[in-house]
Design a protein that fits this description.
Blueprint: E1 2-5, H1 11-21, H2 28-34, E2 40-47, E3 50-60, E4 63-71, H3 80-93, E5 99-105, H4 109-117, E6 121-130, E7 135-143
Parallel strand pairs: 4-5
Antiparallel strand pairs: 1-2, 2-3, 3-4, 5-7, 6-7
This protein binds coenzyme A.
């Protein structure tokens, strides 16, 4: 498994995974526009030519927000999600970024367990943030220097 920066060739597979994993998926066009966004960093975990998972973030003034993280069903519980977030943090911290925040559905135990394992803490809660179905978001945050 190799983790590399997302390129145009990966976008259709990432968009397909978005549709499989989320009720409000990013479109292929939105994902493609991230390739030209200087604030964005998207990584893909590759199994040969197959996108096994991906993570994306945008950074402004030293603070990054995770846009999404997903691993294809067949590749779950193999450490890929964890490896993607670790690689994201490594690359962000090599620049001037010092923290990473994200929203997660309050019912999403799998993702919350992953983030807890990596040291994220709960920084807040947004009532009714998600739609389809409506649900609170937990705001999680990881800081690696002050
Ligand atoms: C959440 C998700 C990205 C995890 O990816 P993954 O590659 O399976 O995760 P990993 O194998 O790296 O798991 C790392 C740790 O997270 C926790 N974890 C992951 N999946 C879990 C599950 N289904 N139940 C409980 N804990 C889980 C475990 O502590 C795990 O370590 P362990 O396997 O040694 O016990 C994946 O389930 C997914 O794509 N879900 C749908 C999309 C999603 O919810 N994205 C997050 C949006 S905020």
């Amino acid at each position: 498994m190799e983790i590399v920066a997302m390129a145009a060739a990966h976008v259709p597979q990432v968009a397909a995974l978005e549709t499989q994993c989320f009720s409000a998926p990013w479109s292929q066009a939105s994902l493609a526009s991230e390739l030209d966004n200087p604030l964005a960093l998207w990584l893909v975990a590759m199994d040969g030519g197959q996108v096994a998972g991906y993570v994306g973030a945008q950074s402004v003034l030293g603070e990054a927000d995770m846009m999404n993280l997903a691993v294809a069903q067949a590749y779950r519980r193999q450490g890929i999600g964890q490896a993607l977030v670790k690689e994201l943090v490594k690359r962000l911290s090599a620049g001037d970024v010092h923290c990473l925040s994200l929203e997660v559905r309050s019912s999403n135990q799998a993702a919350q367990a992953l983030y807890a394992k990596l040291g994220f803490f709960q920084a807040g809660r947004r009532p009714g943030y998600y739609r389809h179905p409506t649900e609170d978001a937990l705001i999680l945050r990881l800081e690696w220097r002050s």
